[in-house]
Amino acid sequence: MALRQFGAAAAVMVALALATPAHAVTEIQWWHAMTGGNNDIVNKLAEEFNASQSDYKVVPTFKGSYPETLTAGIAAFRSGNPPDILQVFGMSAIPAFFNSSLLIHITIEEELKGNDSMSPLDVE
């Protein structure tokens, strides 16, 4: 009996020792209006990025035309469940987000410099 209990305890200890801790993946929701070949490119970029690392998972989601995507984004922000990235066309979309602290100014120069301290765009 004692040998059986010891064997069971040893098996549990080996299983625990071999188990790897769960690694939480940060999911990034990316809503866009890309269709056709551009949609294929967006999906390929996400797939390649996801395959290149294991900390993040980009999930691109087609939300319709640009006006439909913008409308979905505004509704999501108002409901408190916005996507992480909302790709909309042109400056005409920006007024919908004024006074909300939701805009982040991103430029290639900041990325090239490795600036991780981007802050909400000052729209005043």
Walk me through the structure.
This protein has helices at 2-18, 36-52, 66-79, 108-113; strands at 26-32, 56-62, 85-86. The chain has 124 residues and is α/β, with parallel strands linked by helices. It has a single domain, classed as Periplasmic binding protein-like II (D-Maltodextrin-Binding Protein, domain 2), CATH 3.40.190.10. It has a 3-stranded parallel beta sheet with strand order 2-1-3.
Write the layout of secondary structure elements.
Elements: H1 2-18, E1 26-32, H2 36-52, E2 56-62, H3 66-79, E3 85-86, H4 108-113
Summarize the structure.
This protein has 4 helices and 3 strands.
Largest sheet, spatial ordering of strands: 2-1-3
The proportion of strand residues reads 5-15%
Low-confidence stretches: 3-12, 118-124
Fraction of residues in H or I helices = 40-55%
The arrangement of helices and strands along the chain is: HEHEHEH
User: Helix count, per DSSP?
Assistant: 4
Q: What attributes does this structure have?
A:
124 residues; three-stranded parallel beta sheet; disordered C terminus; D-Maltodextrin-Binding Protein, domain 2; alpha/beta
